[in-house]
Amino acid sequence: MIDRGTQGPEWPETAADNWAGREPLTDRELEVLRYVAGGWSNREIARALALTDHTIKWHLKNIYAKLGVNGRVCAVLAVREQAQRAATATGS
């Protein structure tokens, strides 16, 4: 398994940490997005999660639709920005 580091405090721990007004990401979608944020390829993510490349692409398609973005970098930034806003709002 490839170790690409951790995500840091500006990353939500659960799907419940998503913002209101949008369909929340599932725990599996957050897991896939954490790997994406770590620089993992679809194939590497699939192997780590014992899934197919096609399943990873399907999860990413759903993630992009829920976040209203069109790519990996935008998805990661959107989730990090929201987590940071949520932390600021709660005083964390």
Structure description:
With 92 residues, the chain is an all-alpha fold. Helix content is 58%, strand content 0%. Helix 1 crosses helix 3. The longest helix has 19 residues. The model has no long low-confidence stretch (mean pLDDT 84).
Q: First CA to last CA: what distance?
A: 32 Å
Helical element count? 4
Share of helical residues:
55-70%
Tell me the strand percentage band.
Answer: under 5%
Question: Stretches where pLDDT falls below 50 for ≥5 residues?
Answer: none
Q: Could you give the count of β-strands?
A: 0
Keywords:
single chain, 92 residues, mainly alpha, globular
Q: What topology emerges from the helices and strands here?
A:
Blueprint: H1 27-37, H2 42-49, H3 53-67, H4 72-90
Helix pairs in contact: 1-3, 1-4, 2-3, 3-4
Short description:
Helices cover 58% and strands 0% of the residues. The protein is mostly helical and 92 residues long.
